[in-house]
Design a protein that fits this description.
The complex is a heterodimer of chains A (115) and B (113). In chain A, 0% of the residues lie in helices and 49% in strands. In chain A, the strands form two sheets. In chain A, strands 2, 4, 5, 6, 9, 10 and 11 form a seven-stranded mixed β-sheet that branches. Chain A has a four-stranded antiparallel β-sheet with strand order 1-3-8-7, with no helix packed on it. Chain B has 113 residues and is mainly beta. The chains are: A mainly beta (115), B mainly beta (113).
């Protein structure tokens, strides 16, 4: 299967700990996106990369959040000093720059629970 | 802020019934995408509509994009239990905000056998 993969699928952590999630996009896709989804809501945009460049960040992305895509392939999302309000599903998506309709393909997500 | 409103929020029907869900916005989008999401999984892309007035069919699912490209609808004929899931619409733009998709809250559909 060459779809978007995310690891881990589930993460339980205690408040104040740091967590890191990984996303591997579809291999030929040069755009990569992070979204957050809480119960009863649609996904909310966090940030996106075109190759290794981070082109846009949402105001939702506080200074405790950092994302990287060092080689333009996989990406990591780190949350420092986690808070209970960070509990959510973190979704990664990828797309092709040549896709003018911005069709994005999502991974299965990482479910974060902060105790 | 570009908001997409979806209605109804919840829909519970019997197998074989028809249904329509709506996605409305005050903003114009260059394209609109429909996704279905199952519990604990990521959204799966169903269709993209790009032209005002466009109608696309995917088996028993019919998608329509409004003439003004501000709203869309999804009609399911003869719903089946396998259609159960969260249906999300998402708007995309061209230009400086090309990156992000703007999602609605979704319609949670349950189809009972």
């Amino acid at each position: 299967d060459t779809g978007v993969s995310q690891n881990p699928r589930h993460k339980i952590t205690k408040r104040g700990q740091n967590v890191t999630f990984r996303c591997d996009p579809i291999s030929e896709h040069n755009r990569l996106y992070w979204y957050r989804q809480t119960l009863g809501q649609g996904p909310e945009f966090l940030t996106y990369f075109q190759n290794e460049a981070q082109l846009e960040k949402s105001r939702l992305l506080s200074d405790r959040f950092s994302a990287e895509r060092p080689k333009g392939s996989f990406s990591t999302l780190e949350i420092q000093r986690t808070e209970q309000g960070d509990s959510a599903m973190y979704l990664c998506a990828s797309s092709l720059i040549l896709n003018s309709y911005n069709e994005q393909f999502f991974g299965p997500g990482t479910r974060l629970t902060v105790l | 802020t570009q908001l997409l409103e979806q209605s109804p929020q919840f829909l519970s029907i019997q197998e074989g019934e028809n249904l329509t869900v709506y996605c409305n916005s005050s903003s114009v989008f260059s394209s609109l995408q429909w996704y279905r999401q199952e519990p604990g999984e990521g959204p799966v892309l169903l269709v993209t509509v790009v032209t005002g007035g466009e109608v696309k069919k995917l088996k028993r699912l019919t998608f329509q994009f409004g003439d003004a490209r501000k709203d869309s609808s999804l009609h399911i004929t003869a719903a089946q239990p396998g259609d159960t899931g969260l249906y999300l619409c998402a708007g995309a733009n061209r230009g400086s905000t090309l990156g992000r998709l703007y999602f609605g809250r979704g319609t949670q559909l349950t189809v009972w056998p």
